[in-house]
């Protein structure tokens, strides 16, 4: 999709942002992964998603290990710039993660103690499993993290379904399943929220002939 923004200017903006954020570890080049022109949040518009390889920071007071570069994404354009690890996501999911991150920051979402888990949350979780994963054997379940968002509580459960580990969103958060358990639960939550926000915005946007 062509978004009408100057790619060279976007690339230079991304490089300048990374130089400010990570200084001497900033990459010399970027790869354009996607161009997006959506309005999922107020102030959001045409944006570009670039990828780059980032070496780990050296540990203070010790010899740095042999660096193993990890893929990262950076998003710039008509948005708040941000960079983050790739987490194995493709470019479209990376943009969803970016939107979810913006939402989390704007809402001031906070991690809260597990004791605040709503008493009906497990019942809703099991109902979601019957609807979206019928017949799958639930072998293990635990609350991975609980977050307060405005007046709501968003739960991330770690489940083992038929021998596969997944995260499932619950409590006041619409359900969703993600095989991202090698990463912290907030990664799955931000991706999920970004997908929901983008889908809702797309439904609200009138189709043009």
Which bin fits the share of residues in helices? 25-40%
What is the beta-strand fraction? 25-35%
Low-confidence parts: none
How many distinct domains? Answer: 2
Instruction: Strand order, main sheet: write it out.
Output: 5-6-7-8-9
The dominant shape is: globular
> What structural category do the secondary elements indicate?
alpha+beta
- Helical stretch count? 4
| Average predicted confidence as pLDDT | 92
Order of helices and strands: HEEEEHEHEEEEH
Secondary structure: number of strands: 9
User: Ends: how far apart?
Assistant: 17 Å
Strand count, sense and barrel status of the largest sheet are: 5 strands, antiparallel
Rg, Å, rounded = 19 Å
Give structural notes.
By secondary structure, this protein is of the alpha+beta class. The protein folds into two domains: 7-105; 110-204, no CATH class. Helix content is 31%, strand content 30%. It is built from four helices and nine strands. It has helices spanning 7-22, 91-107, 121-132, 185-204; strands at residues 31-37, 46-54, 70-77, 82-85, 110-112, 138-149, 152-161, 164-171, 177-178. The strands form two sheets. It has a five-stranded antiparallel sheet. A four-stranded antiparallel sheet has the order 1-2-3-4, with helices on both faces. The model has no long low-confidence stretch (mean pLDDT 92).
């Amino acid at each position: 999709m062509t978004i009408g923004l100057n790619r060279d200017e976007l690339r230079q903006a991304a490089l300048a942002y990374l130089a400010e954020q990570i200084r001497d570890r900033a990459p010399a080049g970027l790869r354009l992964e996607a161009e997006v022109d959506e309005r999922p949040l107020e102030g959001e518009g045409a944006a570009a998603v670039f990828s780059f390889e980032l070496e780990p920071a050296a540990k203070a007071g010790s010899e740095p290990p042999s660096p193993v570069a990890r893929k990262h994404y950076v998003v710039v354009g008509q948005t708040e710039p941000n960079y983050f690890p790739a987490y194995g996501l493709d470019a479209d999911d990376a943009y969803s993660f970016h939107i979810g991150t913006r939402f989390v920051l704007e809402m001031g979402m906070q991690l809260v103690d597990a004791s605040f888990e709503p008493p009906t949350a497990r019942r809703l979780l099991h109902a979601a499993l019957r609807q979206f994963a019928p017949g799958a054997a639930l072998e293990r379940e635990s609350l991975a993290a609980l977050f307060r968002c405005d007046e709501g509580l968003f739960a991330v459960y770690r489940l083992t379904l038929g021998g596969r580990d997944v995260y499932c969103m619950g409590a006041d958060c619409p359900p969703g399943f993600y095989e991202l358990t090698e990463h912290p639960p907030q990664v799955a939550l931000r991706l999920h929220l970004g997908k929901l926000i983008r889908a809702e915005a797309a439904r609200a946007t009138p189709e043009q002939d």
